[in-house]
Amino acid sequence: MGNPDNRIRIFKKYKEIGFIFPPIIDATAIVSKKAIVREGVFIGKGAIINTGTGLGSSVMQLVHIGENTVKEAGSVVINNLPSNCTAVGVPAKPVKKYSL
Questions:
Q1: pTM to 2 decimal places
Q2: Phi and psi dihedrals of 11, rounded to 5?
Q3: Which domains does the chain have, with CATH numbers?
């Protein structure tokens, strides 16, 4: 996934800040500067991330996660998620919506 040199550089960066399992982010994924990507997260090909991802979460290819959406630890996102919600489970489903 992606350029091997970029993956090595990213891996070293996360190891320096103490991550044991750095996130794996495909080179074609779009991750917002506001996003919080936690340890052990996988973000697949073409995914668009605007918010945070919980510990050990996976975001599969070609999905869009709306703004202010929280994905809980261990969730697996295989479908688009709307904005302003909390999603949990395998596959991740919105369980709570917020009006912001």
A1: 0.61
A2: -60, -45
A3: 4-97 (2.160.10.10)
